[in-house]
Amino acid sequence: MASLFDTHAHLDHDSFESDRDDVIRRAHEAGVVTMIAMGVDVASSQAAIALAGKNPGIYAAVGIQPNYCGQAQAADWDRVLELCVQPGVVAIGETGLDRYWDHSPFDVQQDYFDRHLRLAQERDLPFVVHTRECDADVLDMLRAARNHGELRGVMHSFTSTEETAGECVALGLHLSFAGMVTFTKSAELRRVAASLPADRILLESDSPYLSPHPLRGKRNEPANVVHTARVLAEARGVPLEDFAAQTTANARRLFRLC
Ligand SMILES: [Zn+2]
After folding, report:
1. Global pTM exceeds 0.90
2. How far is the CA of 40 from the centre of ligand 1 (A)?
3. What DSSP string runs through 25-63?
4. What is the structure's pLDDT at 2?
5. Residues having C-beta closer than 5 Å to ion ligand 1
6. Fewer Cβ within 10 Å of end Cβ, the chain: N or C?
7. How far is the CA of 248 from the centre of ligand 1 (A)?
8. From the CA of 241, how far away is ligand 1's center (Å)?
9. What is the pLDDT of residue 46?
10. Residue-wise over 39-77: b if at least 16 C-beta within 10 A, else e?
11. What is the CA radius of gyration of the chain?
C-alpha cells in the first residue's frame, strides 16, 4: 500500500518515554513512514526537533499551544523564533484558540495565535491550528490574517460543521482528521469529510490522544492512523490505496517535502 503520513503526533509525550523507538518502529511497519512531531511549548518544540534530527521521516512543528501560552514568558517566544529556523522544522504550531479548557486568558491566546500566523507567513511555513469551541473566533482571525498574506495551514483534528469546513477550504486551508471520525456516533463528521475536495484532506493520529475505533480509550500511536484512513476512504467511496496516496501527496505538498 502507499505510505501514510501522520501530520500530527505528540511524539515527545511522557507516555512514550519507555517505548518511543518501538512506537516509531510500529509506525513504519504499518506503513506510516512520515510523521510530524508537534510542539506545544518551548521544551516540546525542542524535543520535536531532536526527534526529527535522529529519525528519518520525522519532522517537527514548533510553537506554543493555546493551553500553554498562559504560562509562556517573553523569552519563550524568542526561543520559538530561534527554533523555527532549525533543521527539520516544517511547520509553525500548534497554535489556535481553546475555550473548552480555559487554561490561558482568551486575549493572551488571541495574541499568540496572531503571532504564530504572522510568523508562519513571514517564514513561509505552514501553520497548524487547534480549535475547541472557538470556530467563529478562529475564522475571524484567519480572515484577518488572509488580509496580510496567503494562508497555508491545516485545521488539525477537524470536528466541526460542513459550513466551517467550507469556509476553511475557501481560505485555502487543509483539514486533518483524527480518530474521532471513526467513532460510531460521528456519521455527520464522516459526511463532512466525504464532501471535501480530495486535495485538502489530511490524516493524523494526534497521538497519544484520540485513539480510533476499535482502539478507543487506549494510548494512541501513529501506526493507528491506518484505522482512520480506512474509515475515511470508505466514507469517500475510494479504495484505501488511493486515499493513502492522495493524503500523503497532500501532506508532502503542504509541508514542502516533495
Ligand atoms: Zn496536538
Report:
1. yes
2. 7
3. HHHHHTTEEEEEEEPSSHHHHHHHHHHHHHSTTEEEEE-
4. 85
5. 38
6. C
7. 19
8. 26
9. 98
10. bbbbebbbbbbbbbeebebbbbbbbbbbbbbeebeeebb
11. 17
